[in-house]
């Protein structure tokens, strides 16, 4: 028999900063990439690199939050099926 598995991180940044989980992290990452490309065009390569690095962190954060959301939803669904 299948058992319901509950996977929730105690220090989930998505739970600590819920506003970042609803798309604002993606938007922030996009804004940073736009700024980075502007710096690239100005040949400010060090500044552009820092902006790209920050953008990647925001993209990864947003992806993790979205993944955790889907994982929680599937756990709820599985729990309803097994009940």
TrEMBL record:
Lineage top rank: taxon: Eukaryota
Give the InterPro entries listed for this entry.
MIT_dom (IPR007330), MIT_dom_sf (IPR036181)
Q: Which SMART domains match?
A: MIT (SM00745)
Q: Which residues form the MIT domain?
A: 22-83
Q: What is this protein called?
A: MIT domain-containing protein
Q: Which organism is it from?
A: Ladona fulva (Scarce chaser dragonfly)
Taxonomic lineage of this organism?
Eukaryota, Metazoa, Ecdysozoa, Arthropoda, Hexapoda
């Amino acid at each position: 028999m299948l058992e319901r598995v509950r996977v929730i991180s105690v220090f989930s940044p998505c739970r600590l900063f819920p506003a970042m989980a609803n798309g604002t992290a993606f938007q922030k990452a996009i804004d940073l990439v736009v700024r980075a490309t502007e710096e690239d065009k100005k040949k400010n390569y060090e500044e552009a690199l820092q902006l790209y690095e920050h953008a990647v962190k925001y993209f990864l954060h947003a992806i993790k939050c979205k993944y955790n959301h889907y994982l929680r939803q599937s756990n709820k669904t599985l729990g309803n099926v097994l009940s």
